[in-house]
UniProtKB/TrEMBL annotation:
It comes from Massilia antarctica. This is Uncharacterized protein. It comes from the Bacteria.
Amino acid sequence: MKKVLLPTLSYTLKEAIGKYTFITFNVGPGGDVYVLLALDTLDHRTKDNAFASFAKIIPDSPQRYRVLVFRQGELELDLPIHGERFNIHTIQPLGNDLLLACSRSEYRREDDVDLNARVYSRDGSFLREFLLGDGLETIQTTRHGEIWASYFDEGVLGNYGWPVPVGAAGLVAWNELGEKVYEYDPVWPVDRIIDCYALNVASADDVWCCYYTNFPLVHLHKKRIASTWNVSVSGSNAFAIAGAHVLFAGGYDKRDSFTLVRLDPDGTSMVIGEFELIGDDGVAVKPLKTIGRGAVLYVLDDAVLYEIDLKHVLATRGRG
């Protein structure tokens, strides 16, 4: 039987979102929540035939977006962005600016590719563009402006015309100008990344990931693999990390569950318990999207955002 997990903090985004279309949210290195809304009708899918549709990189008409930034539930920034020619799927702060990215990029020839990273100032002015590659799963930036990008299988193995995918390593770090500064290089006992399901950039020095095929939990310290663990949670899309404990969100056949795991020094792990998150209304939360940053999980359900601080969970429950 699942145990009850209560949020550390929760707040509604309904009033702020209003009549606009929710696109996504992400979390910056300081714990600020970045929400992206579309002001115009979406033109984000293209039909290949009567049965299949694919992501549309560039809509027929430029889109208007709205960026909301929250700190512990308080609205800090409400910024309109006009005339963006790409469909945007994720957002992060980049130093004092904003980084918007499209998850897809097409290769037509060497000098003709979709530059899918879009940098804006906080007054809404477009500053520059560069390439982050096709198949972006997500991005998380550091306080110093470094960009960590994870990739799903098409970005690793290749699609959209790419002879050599930019994200072939599955996890890549870039500087604020779009220059590659690191590519994931696995060493035994872990294998290469085929699909990076979950990423947690806890600090400028410490980055964690969990990926297909065998879903090891990997800790990178200063861009070197410091530790790896075998974990029994497969398919989790986000996790929080605090000391020797990890709280995984979701997984195969348990999309709405949260699994607490203890990490042991020998690279093994033990499941402490499985939980369901209960909202303020007493009803179990059905996560639409979950982000892990350091020790905190950010869970969105029906325009309500829940923050789960793993340190608080461990302190109130006792450590396993």
